[in-house]
Design brief:
29% strand; alpha+beta; single chain; flat; four-stranded antiparallel sheet; binds zinc ion; three-stranded antiparallel sheet; Dna Ligase, domain 1
Length: 268
């Protein structure tokens, strides 16, 4: 619905020689960007559910791709906005369900509140990249019906004043429209996530040859350089296949065999 194929189709064509076909689906029923910020585990479920919906719309297709994103203030640093993009890939023939994630600080996400006639409204709107980047306008005491698809600065300003008047505390909320087609920066992040997923699908499991071989985790306990006791540093990485369950360990990419004594509980 939000033209994400513009970001993903060239990537899948280039890396895998795969063609992306867009089904006619209304995925807004599964949650939209104008509401609450969902939890990451809910995003994974939603993305997989979206991908499965493709098979109902296009019964001849065996591989489906769906995307979910979440942007907002980062939990521990409320003033620093960030986001995460998820791409769910399902190959129903081979039994592959893979979710690739990409975290980013590259976002123009903002949320600010303004009273009617506030002179800072225009500057805030400019700072959010409007009109190249979309915005939503809401009423601070009732965020359930945000105003979308505003085209001109005049439209946004008058919507803000209307919503401020309607709000019990006299404040309108101006925040970023993170739908992909209204956010060029999100399109870029989506493309990067697409590359990450496509490259993963390029790698085949050494045992069953299913696509999607790659990192599934890591094990901590790299020995201390002075006393050899295990530390919280990563000791080795684990690659795995989510079709046959085969897994292999490999040493750290940076080649370190010991951890700094500063990270050791015994030596500190
Ligand atoms: Zn030590
Ligand atoms: Zn395998």
């Amino acid at each position: 619905m939000h033209h994400k194929e513009r970001a993903l189709a060239p990537v899948f064509q280039r890396v895998l020689g795969a063609e992306i076909v867009v089904p006619a689906l209304d995925t807004d029923t599964l949650g939209t960007f104008s509401g609450e910020v969902p939890r990451p585990d809910a995003l994974v479920e939603t993305a997989l559910l979206k991908a499965e919906m493709v098979f109902d719309a296009l019964p001849d297709i065996d591989c489906a791709l769906a995307s979910e994103g979440s942007y907002g203030p980062i939990g521990r640093l409320p003033l620093v906005p960030g986001g995460v993009e998820l791409l769910a890939f399902v190959d129903r023939k081979r039994g592959i369900r893979h979710v690739e994630t990409l975290s980013t600080h590259r976002t123009t996400w903002r949320l600010q509140r303004f009273a009617k006639g506030d002179p800072d409204r225009l500057l805030a709107l400019k700072g959010m990249g409007f009109p190249r980047f979309g915005v939503f306008v809401g009423c601070n005491s009732d965020m359930s019906h945000p105003i979308k698809n505003l085209v001109t600065v005049e439209d946004v300003i008058s919507a803000m004043d209307r919503e401020a008047e309607r709000s019990s505390d006299g404040l309108a909320v101006l925040y970023s429209d993170m739908r992909a087609h209204k956010n060029p920066l999100r399109m870029q992040v989506l493309r990067a996530a697409g590359y990450k997923l496509a490259r993963r699908l390029q790698r085949l499991c050494p045992k069953c040859h299913a696509p999607g071989w790659g990192p599934i985790g890591s094990r901590r306990g790299l020995p201390c350089e002075a006393c050899g006791a295990p530390t919280h540093w990563i000791d080795f990485e684990i690659d795995g296949c989510n079709v046959c369950g085969h897994a292999e360990t490999r040493p750290r990419k940076d080649g370190r065999r010991t951890a700094s004594r500063l990270s050791c509980k015994a030596c500190r």
